[in-house]
Amino acid sequence: MTRKTDNLSNVLIELLSAIGRHDKQAFSRLYQLTSPKLYAVALRILKDEASAQDCLQEGFLSVWRQAASYQPDRAAPMTWLTTIIRHRAIDLLRKQPHDGLKAEVEATLATTLGRVDDTINTLAMTKCLAELNPEQRDCVLLAYYAGLTHPELAEQKQLPLGTVKTWIRHALDLLRQCLQR
Amino acid sequence: MRYQDPTLQDKLAAEYVLGNLTGQARRRFERLLLQDPDLQACVSAWTSRLHPLNDEIEPVTPPESVWTNIMTRIEDATPIPPWQNTPFWRRIAVVAASVLLLFGTFVYFVARPVKHVVVVKNQNAQTEWVVEAQTRSRRVVVRTINPPALPKNKVCVLWLVWKDGRTRSVGVLSDRIGKTEMPLPKELVDKPEMATVVVSVETRGEAVTKPTGKIVFNGPWARL
Question: Alpha carbon A149 to chain centroid distance?
Answer without folding.
Answer: 15
